[in-house]
Write a structure and sequence with these properties.
Blueprint lengths: L1 H15 L6 H7 L1 H5 L20 E11 L8 H15 L11 H4 L7 E5 L12 E5 L28 E6 L7 E3 L11 E4 L17 H10 L64 H9 L37 E4 L7 E5 L9 E6 L4 E6 L4 E4 L8 E8 L6 E7 L5
Parallel strand pairs: 1-2, 1-3, 1-4, 4-6
Antiparallel strand pairs: 5-6, 7-8, 8-11, 9-10, 9-12, 12-13
Length: about 400
């Protein structure tokens, strides 16, 4: 019993002294890949621009690498992490009540959500969760977990998927992320297996899923609040300067030599090093920085047109493109739409008696409507958030016809 008690005490000490994030060290070790000129956008690679107030959907693939049963975390643990991400990036987390009053006015809903991919790079159905045994018992922060040739698992197309590797990391590092502009086959984040999610094999005080929230913040271009230098700058206007990182859970206000007012450090920001239970916010300018990466011509823009969260596209064939509706006698307009969608056909047989369904990219069904005329309008769409939707026209014993549409913010 004494041995077990001593082990628990030692384990608690290790996590109390854990290195919250290994991203700065990772960048220093791989400085050449982050100083190389970025590939400029071209007419072939540019997509649409973000829409005002659009909820941006990021498809995710989780690579669970395990050497023993403890490391082979359950799908339930993975799903608990997805719930945390969607709450934190939409400011739906229950602990927003802990945001100090002086910072509440700049706390932000980033309007970014994450979904497990339902279509793999070969067009096959997937759960978005890969469980893979590895002969490697500990991974360094050197990207070996990202390659099958070194005991890891190869990245999926980083233009369509956010790759998250969950594994056993050597030393005190809980995770690290690749800042925008890195090589495609390394792009993503790495998380220690027992700080991923909120249920199952998780270890306090990093048991609320905030390591992934933090590292994905790096993937979305955010730096640490202190700029990884004494009284440094993270380039974000509304995050106050602080001398260095914070750990544990300080009391508000927490002042340092760099504080510019009596409010002190924003230690409850997801980009500090405090315990999971102490983090609860991004700021408005951090939101702008993250969303800017999805703008036309920027490095995450391709995600705006990713369809891999829609399981109906898993057909053992290439993923659908904008030419899905060629050579059929149907018209769906306007596109982009705002307050209604109109469906017309040159021939009655192509439309009468069929059912139209409208889904978002995660497969959530919003509209089911029977078509009884050659021209039909769907008006129950005004309330929908801006983003990509799929309209499907279904008939008995027929292959559904699929239209990809863009919902823009209402102008009134």
């Amino acid at each position: 019993m004494k041995i077990v008690f001593t082990f628990i005490i030692c384990l608690s000490f290790v996590y109390a002294k854990a290195q919250r994030c290994g991203t700065p060290e990772y960048i220093k070790q791989n400085i050449s890949i982050f100083t190389s000129p970025a590939t400029p956008a071209t007419a072939e690679t540019e997509g649409r621009d973000t829409l005002p107030n659009e909820v941006i959907v990021v498809p995710v693939v989780i690579h669970v690498l395990y050497h023993n049963n403890n490391e082979n975390i359950s799908d339930q643990q993975v799903l608990s992490q997805l719930k945390v991400l969607n709450n934190d990036y939409r400011r739906l987390n229950a602990d927003t009540v802990n945001t100090p009053a002086p910072f509440k006015s700049i706390a932000a809903d980033a309007r970014i959500v994450f979904c497990l991919a339902k279509v793999d790079p070969n067009g096959k159905y997937t759960t978005g969760i890969i469980h893979k045994y590895t002969n490697t018992d500990l991974f360094l922060s050197d990207d070996e977990m990202k390659f099958s040739s070194s005991g890891g698992d190869d990245a999926w197309d980083s233009k369509k998927y956010l790759n998250i590797w969950v594994c056993n990391l050597f030393g005190r590092t809980l995770g690290y992320g690749v800042m925008p502009g890195g090589p495609a086959d390394r792009d993503g984040v790495v998380i220690q297996y027992d700080v991923f999610g909120t249920t199952g094999n998780v270890t306090a005080p990093f048991n609320k899923g905030r390591t992934a929230t933090h590292e994905i913040g790096h993937w979305l271009g955010l730096r640490h609040l202190w700029g990884d230098a004494e009284c440094g700058d993270d380039g974000i206007a509304d995050t106050p300067p602080q001398q260095t990182n914070n750990s544990g859970c300080p009391s508000f206000p927490h002042l340092s030599n760099c504080s510019i007012n009596s409010y002190g450090d924003m230690f409850m920001n997801f980009m500090d090093f405090t315990d999971d239970g102490c983090m609860n916010m991004f700021t408005q300018d951090q939101k702008i920085e993250m969303r800017s990466l999805f703008a036309k011509g920027n490095v995450r823009n391709s995600f705006l047109n990713s369809t891999v969260c829609d399981s109906s596209n898993a057909q053992g064939a290439p993923l659908p493109t904008d030419t899905l509706t060629n050579n059929i006698s149907l018209s769906v307009y306007p596109n982009p739409f705002s307050t209604q969608i109109t469906i017309t056909s040159n021939t009655l047989v192509d439309i009468i008696g069929k059912t139209v369904k409208l889904y978002d990219v995660t497969g959530k069904l919003f509209v089911v409507q029977k078509i009884n005329s050659q021209k039909t309008s769907i008006i129950m769409v005004t309330h929908l958030p801006a983003g990509i939707y799929f309209l499907k026209l279904e008939g008995a014993n027929e292959t559904p016809k699929i239209f990809k549409l863009i919902k823009q913010e209402n102008s009134f």
